[in-house]
Amino acid sequence: MKFTATLTIYATLAVTAFAHRRESLQRCSTNSVLPCICPAGTDYWESSTWSVVGASANDVKDLIMDYYNSAWLGVTPYETRGPDNKPGVSIRTSYLPTKLTDLKIDSRGGFIEKFEQLSSTIPVAYNSGNGSFSGYWVTLESTYIFKHETAIRWSIYACETGHARSM
Q1: What is the β-pairing status of strands 124-125 and 111-117?
Q2: Signal sequence span per UniProt (predicted)?
Q3: Can you say whether the dihedral through the CA atoms of 88, 23, 121, 135 is positive or negative?
Q4: How many CA atoms lie within 13 A of 36 on its CB side?
Q5: What does the domain layout of the chain look like in residue ranges?
Q6: Residue 160: what pLDDT?
Q7: Terminus-to-terminus CA distance in the chain, angstroms?
Q8: Which CATH code is given to the segment(s) 28-161?
Q9: Residue 7: pLDDT band with limits 50, 70, 90
């Protein structure tokens, strides 16, 4: 009897805690606290890739920070709108139209660049998988480590249906 009452109390507390956590999550956006809540019918997905390169932070910045010049990524935009590297204004379209939402550069050449899928409430089918994006947010970060050593981080979180990309 005592065991059953204790188990019931713990089960109730656990359900309440999980329900409260779900309610306290924000809808996914540029500055979401992660994880976040995706639109109905989509699933939350995240990925992060890290690398350390033997180059100065300024050289890395000069190569990969230009929002409209993304050939280093293997994707060249076929359309750009607005001035380059201006958060809230710079828009590029390769496959998904994206908007630069944040750009910060530190004194040693490191930077943080954030961009998101434009019109992120409209699902966009992706050509290499069997799904779509209903929101896609990227953070590209470059951090000075030593004179000729820089860390690069590419982090993505997205709201998807199916498998938007074939890996």
Answers
A1: unpaired
A2: 1-19
A3: positive
A4: 20
A5: 28-161
A6: 79
A7: 53
A8: 3.30.530.20
A9: very low
pLDDT value at residue 82: 92
- C-alpha span between 158 and 105 (Å, rounded): 25
DSSP label at 25? Answer: P
Q: Smallest Cα–Cα separation from 166: which of 126, 136, 134? A: 126
Q: What percent of the chain has pLDDT over 90?
A: 37
Q: What's the whole-model pTM score?
A: 0.75
Residue identified by tokens 């204004």 is 89
pLDDT over threshold 60, residue 72 = yes
Structure tokens at 133: 């994006």
**Distance separating alpha carbons of residues 161 and 4, to the nearest angstrom:** 41
DSSP conformation class of 35: S
What is the DSSP-derived secondary structure letter of residue 28?
P
